[in-house]
Write a structure and sequence with these properties.
Layout (H helix, E strand, L loop, with lengths): L2 E4 L14 H13 L4 E3 L4 E8 L2 E8 L6 H11 L7 E7 L7 E5 L7 H10 L5 E6 L9 H5 L5 H16 L1 H6 L2 H9 L4
Parallel strand pairs: 1-4, 1-5, 5-7
Antiparallel strand pairs: 2-3, 3-4, 6-7
Helix pairs in contact: 1-5, 2-3
GO molecular function: peptidyl-tRNA hydrolase activity; tRNA binding
Main location: cytoplasm
Keywords: Cytoplasm, Hydrolase, RNA-binding, tRNA-binding
Amino acid sequence: MKLIVGLGNPGEKYAATRHNVGFHWLCRLAEQLRITFKSEVKFHGLCANMMLDNEQFWLLKPQTYMNASGMAVAALSRFYKISPDQLLVVHDELDLPPGTVKLKLGGGAGGHNGLKDIMARLATQDFWRLRIGVGHPGNKNEVVDYVLHPPRKEEALLIDDAIQRSLVIWPLIASGDYTAAMHKLHTKQK
């Protein structure tokens, strides 16, 4: 893994919304790794980097708004010659209930505009995703309003727990042991 992208919208207005769980996850990882983000205009985002196994490793929070997330991802990945299979995108997932988190390679966008833009700009859907469940409002016409608002308190606690559980598998993801990461993440704890 050479690039982890957390999806969200920039600005205080969106900070606590369901759509920004990718930003939250990435910020928590940066704290854990003791690295800080700085603005990188040429990459259209906030970036942090460090050496991992003698290779440069990047964290990216696009500052282009969700619908244009691919601009930042494409700029950084092309500049550093990072292939899609070395990319992990962390994002909110409507199709999973709060408290659920899944790791997978490839697949469709599922209506997620950030993923759609990344797929279009990279011309592939074959990159890793960490899908953090935020639940669905039950009506597709309410989705935009739903993701642009903060979760209810009980949902926020479940989402936070999912973020924490998925950060535990970070070393497996970093080392490229995705099978073990998925097994640990997807297996119910007793």
